[in-house]
Amino acid sequence: MLLRWLTVCGTVLAAGCARTTAPNVPAPSAEAVALDARSLAVYRTVADSIYVHTTDRPIAIVATTLDTTCTTSPCVDINQRWGLASLWWADSDSSEANSARQSLLARSEIRFDLRALPAMGGKLVSIDESRVPIAGSDVTPWIAFRDGNSLAAGALQFSGVGFGESGQTAIVFVDWRCGPACGHTLSVALRATSDSTWRIGDMLLLTSQR
User: Which of 56, 124, 136, 167 maximizes the CB count within 10 A of its CB?
Assistant: First the structure.
């Protein structure tokens, strides 16, 4: 059985930074595609249920979905990077799970506009990808990040959402960055509870910095 677990890194920097107003987020490039309400509901469920609930702090949402271009060599296949190599979320229905995987892969090259997500209210703020400290950054850029983004605990960037053929299941890849030695990537499977609400069914941790 696959090991399925999640470690959320909460407060990683001093909490005494003065609260400031989050900067205006530049409009995504012309290629960014507006999101449908169903995808927004999936993103909101993941952001609120895992990160806001665990840290009780604002969470910065990167304004566009992930670019799938490899940043390391050799390039690892996207099925492995995003936890899609096996149908670990299938719950005995491989056809439904496979259709969700194919849906996600079909959306992998599309950059979606996530600015509507924080606009829905709650402890979410929008941020341009360039404002998230790069991998390997020390504590100083993270202090500046928190100070400039409503004391956000970290930054979330999502893939597109893959939906099963029934429309009742979904799968999404998440990249969470929260400090010099804090962050993870994971794949999250969800099930619909109504036409507009979702619950997390299972998660697969892929990488972790601790």
Answer: 124
The DSSP line for 127-178 is E-GGGSPPTT--HHHHHHHHHTTTT-S-EEEEEEEEE-TTSSEEEEEEEEEE
Backbone angles phi, psi at 150, to 5 degrees: 55, 30
Best CA proximity match to 178, nearest among 78, 68, 58, 71: 58
Average pLDDT rounded to a whole number, residues 168-182: 96
- Angstrom CA distances, 51 to 153, 166, 178, stand at 9, 28, 11
Closest by Cα among 200, 208, 204 to 49: 200
Over residues 156-170, the mean pLDDT reads 96
35 in Cβ contact with 116 (< 8 Å): yes
As a whole number, mean pLDDT of residues 121-140 equals 92
